[in-house]
Specification:
Elements (H helix, E strand, L loop, with lengths): L1 H37 L7 E5 L6 H17 L2 E5 L5 H13 L4 E4 L7 H12 L3 E5 L10 E5 L1 H15 L3 E7 L4 H14 L5 E8 L4 H13 L6 E4 L2 H13 L7 E6 L2 H9 L5 E4 L2 H17 L6 E4 L2 E3 L14
Parallel strand pairs: 1-2, 1-3, 3-4, 4-5, 5-11, 6-7, 6-8, 8-9, 9-10
Antiparallel strand pairs: 10-12
Helix pairs in contact: 2-10, 3-4, 5-6, 7-8
Length: about 325
Amino acid sequence: MELEEEIVQKKRYRTMVYTIICSLVFVVVVIYVNAIQIRPIKGQMRVGVTYMTMNNEFYQTLNAEIERVADEKGDLLLVRNPELDEEKQSQQIDYFRQQKVNVIVINPVKGDSPKIIASLKRAKQAGIKIIAVDSQLSHFTVDASVVSDNYQAGVLVAQRLMKQKNEAKILLLEHKGTVSAEQRIQGFLDTIQSEPAYQVVGREETRGQTELALPAVSQVIQDGLVFDTVVALNDRAAIGALAAIKENQLAIPISIYGIDGSPDMKVLLSTTDDIEGTVAQSPLKMGRQVMQVIECMRTGKSYKEQYKIPVEMIDKDNVDRYDVNGWQ
């Protein structure tokens, strides 16, 4: 009996020792893994990237180009999606700062958001470089910005519209608080302002999303608003407007304009009469330019405060010059 108890006690002792050893090994492994993640690699740039949303092919393509070049350079990317939530984007910026990134690339949810700007200020005080991409910030100075010529995009839409029609009743689809979207709309409005034949009869907030533009345009149609032209801040909103027009079976032809030069819009332009035009942006050029600026930051070379990438109107006359299945 005593022998059996002694054997049981020895087993318990061995089990306890084994458990303690396993726990210590686990703790050591966790500490080692975390040390590897945090310890910077010589010459490597740690880059935090946050876009206003990844529910948009434009940002997916832009990010893919940044990732491609970063992989070639051996840089580390931390990519986050705030889903159009400024509080979430602010938290993401704070996380990047805690992870001791060298650079934050931000496509701001809202250009004048106090929460986002406060987080960026904390990051800048910690010595982190800030690059704004595609859209800009109000009341905060970034180290560099890489944007399309958004104002010119609006101008091109207005010029194309005035060439197509002698008069128009225009429905604007907007994304207020986003600098790039506001610049596009302002470029359009400034170009038509001296021409009373071109009247803005409605303005709808869509946040640049198809799923918000569709019900918004459906509602104005059902409310009886008369319009013959839609000018959207981007292609996703324009496609939402087209879906609403089809769904409500409007009898009069509606001219629809977007901005992006997305594959979907180029296919519609080349195969249907549903779209009048879209202004082409280049997420590929934008991504490469962002990484060129980061390379300058790495090597201590000078770089500009702003890089403005040219835009071009795509319509039925020139759509065959573009790859309709991809971005330019």
